């Protein structure tokens, strides 16, 4: 196991230290490392307004333990973590599994010391956003967003922010779009900044709608709902498997399953399925390998016109028009 | 016709005047709601980052409205993305340009040194996203992407500093469409709009600076089929040309589609490619020293007239067959 002690902060002060710790170098906005322990891309960007984005798309070839001890604790870290493999975050008395199918969004106060462990063979795609606490207030003010008792919320003496959650489907797709782009360059920077804004927007929306905080859901139930979600994602090409079937899979009554699914994902099972299906259809169209009707058949839509109307309803544009203007 | 004159700046102060003319008020320095007797809708302004701001308009006018943009001192480019499902007009130098997703021309890039007027169609919902970008910033972009085809440079040399670019790419349309569904009163709207704007801009530059040769996009299946027929041709050089009907059948396409794709992909027609490969093979045979006459080689390659063969040979390799010919018995005599 390779143990690394590092720090983050809401400016670029941490980068050099971090690069040295993982045995890498800074080239432009990239942090490059030797290929023995991990391969992939690490990219950081100052987004202005006291916001730093740190983009990772790496595969680990050894077990890693990253200990985060921050010198400058005046920031909050948002970790959008889509690791395929095993990773955990531990701090004090709690420990959570993180990754694409676990808690994939953690919000952790910079004042907190935390330990991130990731196992060999894991592929991590993550976007970390560090925001200065003082800037949160200024940011909200500049963007005319009003949240009550913001002062107590960001005061780490009163309130240490630690939250483990699952990102919304929308956020996931925003990240997925980012992943498709080639890293580096002005175009990527624009997209990265855009993505950061969209993620913040999404997070704010979530706060505003006061959706249930997932940490409060029974862990067992959560795991089951997520496994159903996983099943749905893996079977996007097929018909919707029926609530009855899924409820059985999750060992719940149908009504409990339905309400819990909605609580956790923010969508009904059917809407979640359809949305991901349409996103997949969009990706297939982007690849320009299949025609509209081939995709419609491939994804088991009853017929082309139903597919087209669903696509139009969701994206506001027909699949043909989308294809033409790619 | 109601007229509305305004100018743009990267900072919010320009809106005050607009609000005054509409006899309404500016909310939070970002939002102007159009009063009911004129129409239904709003203008939303936000500063995204240093040098980039955005105006998002969603309105349905009840009477003809002409929005005249005056030139201002700031050096700006205005990217106008129009997602209305009908035709609006942009007037520049007394020429009306149609714009709107209806006629597929939905993106205009304007120089703010030149006055323009925007006339939304009456009784229809107009959706437009305008990005205001400091020219200095674009200059940086241009330098970063040192492409030979630099249209900002081109547009400067043009007498009109205006460029009608054409259409928005699909992904940006989806992004702008998604704004429609959000409420401007949501606290997440501002970040959302900023995020979308940046991504739209990213898409634009991405598309713009992408090398043009990517135009020909074959699906894998088509590419494989073309390769297959090409291999067939090169493996059957001794016979006659197998005919387009046969080849297109093999590729599973119509003849015309096959021909045009083949030409685009290999930069040559199937027949020409076949002849070229054949002549190259002829050269190999000529030099091999295993034939005693040219005629033998000619027959071997399914030519019937020596003169025709010689002409083709010269056409392609710019030398005569006899220059390359090594006679069979000649080599024998030497040994």
Automatic annotation (TrEMBL), chain A:
Q: Which GO terms describe its molecular function?
A: DNA-binding transcription factor activity; sequence-specific DNA binding
User: Pfam families, per this entry?
Assistant: HTH_18
Keyword Transcription among UniProt keywords: yes
The keyword Transcription is assigned to this record: yes
Q: What is this protein called?
A: Putative transcriptional regulator
The entry's keywords: DNA-binding, Transcription, Transcription regulation
Q: Which InterPro entries match?
A: Homeodomain-like_sf, HTH_AraC
Q: Where is the HTH araC/xylS-type domain?
A: 226-325
Q: List the source organism.
A: Flavobacterium anhuiense
Which parts pass through the membrane?
none
TrEMBL record, chain B:
Q: List each copy of the HTH araC/xylS-type domain by range.
A: 227-327
Protein origin, superkingdom: Bacteria
InterPro entries per UniProt: HTH_AraC (IPR018060), PchR_regulatory_protein (IPR053142)
Q: Name one GO molecular function term.
A: DNA-binding transcription factor activity
Q: A Pfam family this protein belongs to?
A: HTH_18
Q: What is this protein called?
A: Putative transcriptional regulator
Q: Which source organism does the UniProt entry give? A: Flavobacterium anhuiense
Traced from the root, the source organism's taxonomic lineage reads:
Bacteria, Pseudomonadati, Bacteroidota, Flavobacteriia, Flavobacteriales
């Amino acid at each position: 196991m390779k143990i690394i002690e590092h720090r983050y902060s809401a400016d670029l002060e941490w980068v050099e230290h971090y690069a040295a710790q993982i045995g890498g170098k800074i080239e432009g906005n990239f942090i490059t490392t030797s290929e023995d322990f991990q391969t992939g891309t690490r990219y950081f960007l100052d987004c202005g307004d006291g916001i730093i984005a740190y983009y990772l798309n790496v595969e680990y070839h050894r077990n890693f333990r990253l200990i985060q001890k921050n010198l400058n604790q005046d920031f909050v870290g948002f970790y959008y973590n889509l690791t395929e493999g095993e990773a955990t975050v531990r701090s004090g008395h709690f420990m959570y599994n993180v990754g694409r199918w676990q808690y994939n969004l953690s919000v952790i106060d910079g004042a907190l010391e935390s330990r991130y462990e990731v196992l060999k063979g894991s592929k991590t795609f993550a976007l970390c956003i560090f925001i200065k606490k003082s800037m949160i207030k200024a940011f909200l003010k500049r963007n005319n967003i009003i949240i009550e008792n913001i002062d107590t919320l960001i005061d780490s003496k009163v309130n240490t922010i630690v939250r483990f959650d699952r990102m919304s489907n929308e956020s996931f797709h925003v990240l997925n779009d980012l992943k498709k782009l080639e890293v580096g360059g002005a175009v990527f920077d624009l997209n990265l900044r855009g993505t950061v804004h969209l993620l913040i927007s999404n997070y704010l929306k979530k706060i505003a709608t006061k959706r249930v905080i997932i940490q409060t859901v029974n862990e067992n139930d959560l795991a089951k709902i997520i496994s159903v979600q996983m099943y749905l994602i893996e079977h996007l090409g097929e018909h919707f498997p029926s609530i009855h079937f899924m409820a059985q899979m999750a060992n719940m009554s149908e009504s409990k399953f339905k309400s819990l699914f909605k609580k956790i994902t923010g969508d009904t099972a059917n809407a979640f399925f359809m949305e991901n299906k349409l996103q997949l259809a969009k990706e297939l169209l982007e690849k320009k390998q299949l025609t509209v009707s081939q995709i419609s058949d491939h994804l088991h839509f009853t017929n082309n016109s139903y597919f087209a109307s669903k696509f139009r309803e969701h994206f506001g544009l027909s699949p043909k028009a989308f294809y033409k203007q790619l | 016709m109601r007229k509305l004159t305004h100018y743009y700046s990267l900072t919010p102060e320009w809106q005050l005047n607009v609000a005054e003319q509409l006899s309404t008020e500016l909310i939070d320095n970002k939002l102007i709601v159009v009063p009911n007797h004129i129409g239904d809708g709003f203008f939303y302004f936000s500063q995204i980052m240093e040098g980039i701001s955005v105006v998002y308009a969603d309105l349905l006018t009840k009477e003809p409205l002409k929005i005249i943009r005056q030139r201002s001192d700031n050096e700006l480019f205005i990217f106008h993305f129009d997602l209305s499902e009908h035709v609006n007009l942009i007037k520049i130098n007394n020429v009306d340009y149609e714009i709107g997703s209806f006629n597929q021309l939905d993106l205009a890039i304007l120089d703010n040194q030149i006055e323009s007027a925007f006339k939304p169609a009456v009784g229809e919902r107009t959706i437009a996203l305008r990005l205001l970008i400091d020219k200095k910033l674009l200059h940086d972009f241009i330098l970063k992407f040192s492409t030979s085809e630099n249209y900002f440079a081109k547009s400067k040399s043009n007498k009109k500093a205006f460029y009608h670019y054409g259409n928005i790419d699909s992904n940006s349309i989806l992004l702008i469409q998604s704004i429609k569904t959000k409420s401007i009163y949501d606290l997440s709207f501002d970040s959302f709009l900023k995020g979308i704007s940046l991504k739209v801009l990213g898409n634009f530059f991405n598309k713009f600076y992408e090398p043009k040769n990517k135009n020909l996009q074959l699906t894998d299946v088509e590419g494989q089929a073309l390769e297959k027929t090409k291999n067939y041709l090169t493996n059957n050089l001794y016979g006659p040309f197998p005919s387009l009907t046969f080849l297109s059948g093999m590729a599973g396409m119509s003849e015309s589609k096959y021909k045009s794709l083949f030409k685009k992909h290999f930069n040559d027609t199937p027949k020409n490619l076949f002849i070229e490969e054949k002549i190259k093979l002829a050269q190999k045979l000529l030099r091999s020293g295993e034939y005693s006459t040219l005629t033998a080689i000619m027959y071997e390659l399914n030519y019937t007239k020596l003169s025709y063969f010689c002409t083709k040979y010269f056409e392609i390799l710019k030398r005569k067959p006899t220059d390359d010919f090594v006679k069979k018995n000649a080599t024998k005599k030497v040994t």
